[in-house]
Design a protein that fits this description.
By secondary structure, this protein is α/β, with parallel strands linked by helices. The chain contains eleven helices and eleven strands. It folds into two domains: about 80 residues, Winged helix-like DNA-binding domain superfamily/Winged helix DNA-binding domain (Arc Repressor Mutant, subunit A, Orthogonal Bundle), CATH 1.10.10.10; about 230 residues, D-Maltodextrin-Binding Protein, domain 2.
Length: about 325
């Protein structure tokens, strides 16, 4: 008979298309994945995958059972969420996923949560991978684009400003930017294709003719660190740069914004420990709204006293 414990291995192989990828997703050895797949194929008396140069591909039988197995997985996850919602204890682990660059700020906030709810542990999952909340890859997501998944609750909680920065040492050596923000003749820390649509990349594309691109990165944290090391000019979120005393804005105000969202499955939003973390994050975003927008006093380098940017200084990112 089919062992339902083998089903997650079948689905993980289908999604990752390799044994190694499935093993990483399930946090087991790849030999375990192969063994469980073989057991499932023996139980069904059919081959479910063929190995190709591009990875594992479903056979005809695999294609036929896939939608049935996915519905079974969804039903089991629904049972789990319903059962969890009956737990009214504010204790246990809550998995929160966010970007690498925002994780640092989130980590600093969590000390206050610990003081209020010492029995709640946050498992902070960082990275740019969009984890599937419906499959409980995480409980809460802090995202910077609205979700398109209709079965999830998505709440806008922040506006995050982006500004142009360089280190004080760089500005002393190379001089400030002109009022137009023209980067001609300056060293620039830009972004790779994966970040081509972020406000920083769009602004650099518009103002960077004649600049020397000294680094491209898919990481905002790496871009910030490069600027701290005097490598050049970059355009990054204000929450990353404004706390750094050696970084200065080269253009007054912010050059663009992105929205921040909290995303959760509605069933999990009723779980006490998840609800506690959600409420805490909503409070923290509200309390830090001005800081996240980039409204902290910061004028262009070399322009005298720093002043609060006016409404006209900020433009919505494309």
């Amino acid at each position: 008979m089919l062992d339902w414990n083998d089903v997650p291995f079948f689905l993980a192989i289908r999604r990752a298309e390799t044994l190694a990828g499935a093993a990483r997703a399930l946090k087991v050895e790849h030999t375990t994945v192969g063994r469980r797949l073989a057991a499932m194929e023996r139980a069904l008396g059919a081959k479910l995958f063929v190995r190709t140069p591009d990875g594992f591909r479903l056979t005809r039988m695999g294609e036929e059972i896939l939608p049935l197995v996915e519905r079974a997985e969804a039903a089991l996850l629904q049972v789990e969420r319903v059962a969890l919602a009956d737990d009214d204890r504010a204790e246990g682990t809550v998995r929160v996923t966010t970007s690498e660059s925002f994780a640092g700020l989130l980590g600093r906030w969590l000390a206050e949560l610990r003081g209020k709810h010492p029995r709640v542990t946050v498992d902070l999952i960082t990275g740019n991978a969009r984890l599937d909340l419906s499959r409980r890859e995480a409980d809460i997501a802090v995202r910077f684009a609205a979700t398109r998944e209709g079965n999830l609750v998505c709440r806008r909680v922040a506006t995050l400003g982006w500004a142009v920065y360089a280190s004080r040492a760089y500005v002393k050596a190379r001089g400030p930017l002109p009022p137009s923000g023209d980067l001609r003749g300056h060293d620039v820390i830009g972004f790779g294709e994966s970040m081509a649509q972020v406000p920083g990349a769009l602004w650099i594309e518009e103002h960077g003719r004649g600049a020397d691109m000294v680094m491209r990165s898919g990481s905002l944290t790496a871009a910030c660190n490069a600027a701290l090391a005097d490598l050049g000019v970059t355009v990054i979120p204000c929450y990353l740069a404004d706390p750094e005393p050696t970084l200065v804005r080269l253009v007054p105000g912010v050059i663009g914004t992105r929205d921040g969202f909290l995303v959760v499955h509605p069933d999990l939003a009723r779980v006490a420990r998840v609800r506690v973390v959600l409420s805490f994050l909503v409070e923290r975003f509200a309390a830090n709204a001005a800081f996240l927008r980039g409204d902290a006093p910061a004028a262009a380098a070399g322009e005298g006293p720093r002043s609060r940017p006016g409404r006209g200084a900020r433009s919505k990112s494309r």
